[in-house]
Design brief:
CATH architecture of the largest domain: 3-Layer(aba) Sandwich
Distance between the termini: 39 Å
Shape: globular
Number of strands: 14
Oligomer: single chain
Number of helices: 10
Strand content: 15-25%
Strand order of the largest sheet: 3-2-1-4-5-6-11
Largest sheet: 7 strands, parallel
């Protein structure tokens, strides 16, 4: 059987495609390449350039390949942009996901893995690690668009018992392929570690820390950083579980360990051997003090064992990839 990966030319998608290929899977990638890169797709995968809502293209893919599983990454991911242009996010992340889900059910594709996000939780009510049963209060159109897709998957799976899904709620994805094949390559990325690595290598003059008066040990926001390769592996585990008859599942993907903004910057400075300018700025609206995953469900249900729960390793791989982009 074959796995269809939408958004397989993007950051997380390309890492997952490489992992699937290494596991001996046959892989088809569907990506419009609006933010992804053709060179990032493993050469053993078959790439279709197009839109996930293009019914004729989906029919062509489904008739040409024995697809039994879809891993759905394609979508828009910038929270500030979603606030400024919400309808783009409801189109790309919700409406087009609905079209893909409908096509999958029509084609009798049984397994669907969805790239969701911790943004569905909004600001946690406490600093304790977040469980999947926590109240869902997305605070951006991005988070809302992902939650809407989770709801569609839940309802579709109820109406079509032969259709199962796994929604993985990512926390802060970082790092790059330890073998140096792919990494975070999007220009203008806003992720802290990406920006810090760019600053350490002189690609930016400085970076800003937004808020130093949070109720955390050093006053800056705390987040749970997960290495992209461990996240890719969680998707493979989800595919295996559903193929073995596992029912639908929602699971957090993180390590359960939080690092503050200043701790991340100190690690980047130490690993890179460079100092750089850090500007202290006021808080940004909507930033929670601490967001850390309780990922026990993923570990127990998926038999997922993270291999790279080490901030220094995450930083080393991110810096290595950033240097590659400089060549």
């Amino acid at each position: 059987m074959t796995v269809l990966v939408t958004g397989g030319a993007g950051y997380i998608g390309s890492h997952t495609v490489w992992s699937l290929i290494e596991a001996g899977e046959r892989v088809v990638v569907l990506d419009c390449l609006s933010t992804g890169f053709e060179w990032a797709v493993a050469p053993e995968a078959i790439l279709y350039k197009g839109d996930i809502a293009d019914q004729a293209l989906l029919n062509q893919i489904f008739s040409s390949h024995e697809i039994d599983t879809i891993i759905h990454f394609a979508g828009s991911v910038a929270v500030p942009e979603s606030v400024a242009n919400p309808l783009k996010y409801y189109e790309n992340n919700t409406a087009k996901s609905r079209a893909l889900i409908a096509a999958a059910i029509e084609a009798r594709i049984r397994n669907f893995v969805f790239s969701s996000t911790a943004a569905v939780y909004g600001t946690p009510v406490s600093s304790d690690p977040v469980l999947e049963t926590a109240e869902l209060h997305p605070e951006s159109p991005y988070g809302s668009s992902k939650l809407m897709t989770e709801i569609m998957l839940r309802d579709a799976a109820f109406a079509h018992p032969e259709f199962n899904y796994t929604a993985l709620r990512y926390f802060n994805v970082a790092g790059s392929d330890p073998k140096g094949r792919v990494g975070q390559s999007t220009a203008g990325a806003t992720h802290l570690l990406k920006v810090a690595c760019e600053t350490a290598l002189g690609k930016r003059a400085s970076l800003s820390v937004f808020g130093t008066d949070y109720p955390t040990p050093d006053g800056t926001c705390v987040r749970d950083y997960i290495h992209v390769s461990d996240l890719a592996n969680a998707h493979l585990k989800a595919v295996d579980r559903m193929r073995q008859g596992g029912d639908s599942l929602i699971a957090n993907c993180g390590y359960g360990t939080g690092y503050s903004v200043l701790e991340v910057l100190d690690c980047v400075k130490r690993v890179s051997g460079t100092d750089f300018t850090v500007n202290l700025a006021p808080r940004r609206p909507g930033d929670a003090a601490s967001v850390v995953a309780n990922a026990q469900k993923a570990m127990s249900e998926l038999d997922w064992i993270p291999q790279h729960n080490d901030l220094e390793f995450i930083v080393k791989t991110a810096l290595s990839w950033e240097r590659t982009l400089s060549v």
